[in-house]
Amino acid sequence: MKREQSESTIQIHPIMEQSFAVIDREIGAHNLSDAEYAIVRRVIHTTADFEFKHLVSFSPDAINAGITALRRGVPIVTDVSMVKQGVVGLVTKTFHNPLLSAVEQVSTALPGKTRTETGILQCYEKYPHAIYVIGNAPTALLALCDRITTTSILPALVIGAPVGFISVLESKAALAQTSVAQIRVESRKGGSAVAAAILNALIMLALQK
Question: Is 45 noted as a catalytic residue in this protein?
Answer without folding.
Answer: yes
